[in-house]
Amino acid sequence: MKGTLLKNEPLAKYTSWRVGGPAEKMYLPENRQDLIDFLKSLPKQENVYWLGLGSNLLVRDGGIKGTVVNTRGRLKDMQLIDAEKIYVEAGVPCAHVAKFCTGLGLTGAEFLAGIPGTMGGALKMNAGAFGSETWNIVDSVEIVNASGEVTKRGTEDFEVAYRSVKGLTDEWFIAVELKLNKGESELSQLKIKALLEKRGQTQPTNKPTCGSVFKNPPGDYAARLIEACELKGYEIGGACVSPKHANFIENTGNATAADIEALIAYIQQQVKQQFDISLNTEVCRVGEVL
Q1: Which stretches of 52-169 are DSSP H helices?
Q2: pLDDT score of 130
Q3: The domain spanning residue 228 has which CATH number?
Q4: Closest-CA residue to 249 (of 216, 280, 288, 203)
Q5: How far, in Å, CA of 106 to CA of 183, rounded?
Q6: Angle (CA) 84 96 103, round 5°
Q7: 74 is known as an active-site residue
Q8: The whole model's pTM is what?
């Protein structure tokens, strides 16, 4: 193996919420082939988790038993395939993809500038921002399984919905081909600038959060419901419902994952009690409870 294997590695420094216990093992692959070789070397029953920028993720305080594959700063190849298609590996931050496409005069990926994660994470959950979703621009994907075998698949192999993608079993996205449109680079840059300004005005981008915590229920908005329950600023331990955007939970400095989970549960209880609506989480929760 050419990568780095760490043991009992604290995960709080790898997550945007700045919480989480240790990973039993963490592997930082050198490149795509090294990752494939590493997966082939693992015991068949090994629990494998993938970590990109650590947004949209709550790692519990007991940490993760098994192996965490860390793609931050890795799997970062991105290139133009033809006039309207680009190839992106799973570790590339979404914001970098938006900038790359804009530089090439390709439109359709501007919304990715507002997603604080990697392409791998965006593919897994059909991440979206500003009314657009990742899988709207997907042409095909590359998948690696637990045995290190790589296959290429089209979108027809997956059941894609709002913040949901089904069709993987002990498999992970390692790359994607995005289908875009020719446009004006300057117009795309202006659009990205406007989107980021809007994001900065409406979201707590300078605080430790995971992004949006809850999915929007059909025909409504999670933030509206939470705000209507007068929960903005409500705290449990070091976790606080953002005063700026009610669908964000901030780590005020000393939060634990348990604090955040307790606040999530309290929000769900209040919204259910007052509106008879069940809020489902968008954030992925992994690991052991202390």
Answers
A1: 94-103, 119-125
A2: 86
A3: 3.90.78.10
A4: 203
A5: 5
A6: 50
A7: no
A8: 0.93
Nearest-10 crossing angle of helices 94-103, 185-202: 150
Residues 100 and 180 reside in one and the same domain: yes
Counted domains in the chain: 3
144 in the same domain as 32:
no
What pLDDT does residue 44 have?
87
Weakly modelled stretches of the chain, pLDDT under 70: none
Q: Which of 193, 177, 222 is nearest to 85 (CA)?
A: 177
Location of structure tokens 């449109």: 181
Which one from 9, 250, 261, 282 is the annotated catalytic residue?
282
- Which pLDDT score, from 0 to 100, does residue 73 have? 92
Q: Tell me the C-alpha distance between 157 and 181, whole Å.
A: 24
Where are the strands (E) in the chain, listed by range?
4-10, 22-28, 48-51, 57-59, 64-70, 78-82, 85-89, 106-107, 128-129, 132-133, 138-145, 150-154, 159-161, 164-166, 171-179, 181-182, 235-236, 239-241, 249-251, 284-286
Q: Tell me what pLDDT residue 100 has.
A: 96
85 and 160: one domain?
yes
The pLDDT of residue 169: 87
Q: Tokens 């790898």 sit at which residue?
A: 14
pLDDT of amino acid 92 = 97
Residues 198 and 86 in one domain: yes
For residue 35, count other CB atoms closer than 10 A to its CB.
Answer: 26
| Token pair belonging to 25 | 């093992």
Q: Which of 16, 188, 212, 242 is catalytic?
A: 212
CB neighbours (10 Å) of residue 218?
Answer: 7
* pLDDT given for residue 182 in this prediction: 94
Task: Give residue 157's domain range.
Answer: 78-202
Choosing from 163, 242, 250, 261, the catalytic residue is 163
